[in-house]
């Protein structure tokens, strides 16, 4: 189905740098023909799907856009890739990203930045870190793509490229074979042209995986379906508008598209309610303590001995070899995260940074639980004892995905690392709480732009979030 058209686009939009490696053309076309003839079946039969290059595939390299893994090919497929293939999906290629998923503009890549055209010969950011996946879907180089979202890396690129980006609840999709950035936050996410397409892929990928210790077991999945997903049968939804997201630096165009989305939902019969998430202000800082801390520990294994390219010259298992390998192999942003993480975990700093950030994380989770009508299915005892009941809270939250419109490459050149971190202010709270969240492109006629509007649901309410996404779309 349109495989030929995707392949043509991959050639004509090569300048965007969306892919690091492409699947072999004849094999892709043959697989697509098999699907057309009906000899391959499944919900994704014949669909070309781009895969972020931090998700392991046995037939193409998995570089994480890092110099240190530039020649690495995994001996196995990640669980999500096996599931895609079983459903008839075709891996189109591996998409470019910020090295190891660290960044918000897909410019920190060993293979060069990903960009999108602005229409006037200038270039714009595609967002990050799953920017290659977003650019590939937005320009028709594949039907849909997988990304990973640790603190917004699927939602932000979707918002900046005008497509749909869905981050499921933490633990629903297997992380086995997904290269870890920050384990407690990492989720596989989906980039597509519509919520319906995302749902189709989500249904294929969601499931318990015994090889991933954080995969939600069947009992939790059963508890989720007890409360989630039945909203539409019960009449109008209660839509929450978090006051803390109305920040002074919010772009006026983003603000007006937020308001028009809320008016539209109201016109459909749903009701709008103000909610308060007081810890939102601390969430970003907590994220940028926790994520680098986990990263510094995860990246310790790239030492030139067990994984990755080894520096020329020094030999033997000495610190000289390690530091030469890591010094040459990692890019600047990754080094910055390792330093940050190693510092906040150090004996002198851990109490003031890491421990505090973990406390903030609990408060962020509590804010959300207070706001939602449904109880959190992770609070097993309360639910199983029948203690948990629905309250006067809201069904979902609706807010912008990013505070500004898509920045130009020129804008980025004027930014420091902290400015880039600030882009994630609206996406990290849902990540800290593990909640499902989707970014939907909303057209703003007066600005000739698409703005990403985010829908966040209670843990496990992934289907509701996808359904509301398709109402807004
Ligand atoms: N921009 C955030 C970071 O750099 C989010 C990254 C992600 O979700 N992978 O950490």
TrEMBL record:
Residues 7-466 form the Amidase domain. One of its GO terms (biological process) is mitochondrial translation. The keyword Transferase applies. The keyword DNA-binding does not apply. The active site is at 52 (charge relay system), 129 (charge relay system), 153 (acyl-ester intermediate). It is found in: Mitochondrion. One of its GO terms (molecular function) is ATP binding. PROSITE patterns: AMIDASES. Transmembrane segments: none annotated. Its EC number is 6.3.5.7. One of its GO terms (cellular component) is mitochondrion. It catalyses: L-glutamyl-tRNA(Gln) + L-glutamine + ATP + H2O = L-glutaminyl-tRNA(Gln) + L-glutamate + ADP + phosphate + H(+). Keywords: ATP-binding, Ligase, Mitochondrion, Nucleotide-binding, Protein biosynthesis, Transferase. It comes from the Eukaryota. Pfam families: Amidase. Subunit of the heterotrimeric GatCAB amidotransferase (AdT) complex, composed of A, B and C subunits. Belongs to the amidase family. GatA subfamily. Allows the formation of correctly charged Gln-tRNA(Gln) through the transamidation of misacylated Glu-tRNA(Gln) in the mitochondria. The reaction takes place in the presence of glutamine and ATP through an activated gamma-phospho-Glu-tRNA(Gln). This is Glutamyl-tRNA(Gln) amidotransferase subunit A, mitochondrial. It comes from Aulographum hederae CBS 113979.
């Amino acid at each position: 189905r349109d495989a030929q058209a995707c392949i043509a686009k991959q050639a004509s939009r090569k300048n965007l740098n969306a892919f690091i490696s492409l699947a072999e053309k004849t094999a892709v076309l043959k697989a697509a023909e098999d699907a057309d003839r009906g000899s391959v079946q499944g919900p994704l039969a014949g669909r070309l799907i781009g895969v972020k290059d931090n998700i392991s595939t046995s037939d193409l390299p998995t570089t994480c856009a890092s110099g240190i893994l530039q020649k690495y090919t995994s001996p196995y497929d990640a669980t999500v890739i096996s599931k895609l293939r079983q459903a008839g999906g075709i891996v189109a290629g591996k998409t470019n990203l910020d090295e190891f998923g660290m960044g918000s503009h897909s410019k920190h890549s060993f293979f060069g930045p990903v960009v999108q055209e602005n229409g006037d010969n200038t270039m714009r950011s595609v967002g990050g870190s799953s920017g290659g996946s977003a650019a590939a879907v937005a320009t028709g180089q594949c039907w849909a793509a997988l990304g990973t979202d640790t603190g917004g890396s699927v939602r932000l690129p979707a918002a900046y490229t005008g497509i749909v980006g869905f981050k499921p609840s933490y633990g629903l999709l297997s992380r086995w074979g997904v290269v870890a950035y920050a384990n407690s936050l990492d989720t596989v996410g989906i980039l597509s042209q519509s919520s319906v397409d995302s749902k189709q892929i989500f249904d294929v990928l969601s499931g318990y995986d015994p090889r991933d210790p954080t995969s939600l077991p069947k009992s939790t999945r059963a508890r989720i379906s007890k409360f989630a997903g039945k909203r539409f049968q019960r009449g109008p939804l209660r839509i929450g508008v978090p006051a803390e997201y109305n920040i002074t630096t919010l772009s006026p165009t983003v603000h007006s598209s937020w308001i028009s989305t809320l008016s539209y939902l109201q016109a459909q019969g749903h009701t709008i309610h103000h909610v308060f998430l007081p810890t939102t202000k601390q969430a970003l800082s907590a994220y940028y303590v926790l994520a680098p801390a986990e990263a510094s520990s995860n990246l310790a294994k790239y030492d030139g001995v067990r994984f990755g390219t080894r520096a020329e010259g020094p030999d033997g298992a000495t610190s000289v070899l390690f530091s030469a390998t890591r010094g040459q192999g990692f890019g600047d942003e990754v080094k910055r995260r390792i330093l940050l993480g190693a510092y906040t975990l150090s004996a002198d700093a851990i109490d003031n940074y890491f421990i505090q950030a973990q406390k903030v994380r609990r408060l962020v989770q509590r804010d959300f639980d207070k706001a939602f009508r449904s109880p959190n299915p992770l609070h097993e005892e309360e639910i199983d004892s029948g203690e948990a009941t629905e309250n006067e809270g809201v069904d979902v939250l609706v807010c912008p995905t990013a505070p500004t419109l898509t920045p130009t490459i020129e804008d980025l050149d004027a930014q420091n690392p902290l400015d880039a971190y600030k882009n994630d202010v609206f996406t990290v709270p849902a990540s800290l709480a593990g909640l499902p969240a989707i970014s939907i492109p909303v057209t703003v006629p007066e600005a000739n732009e698409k703005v990403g509007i985010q829908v966040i649901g209670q843990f496990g309410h992934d289907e509701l979030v996808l359904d509301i996404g398709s109402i807004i779309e």
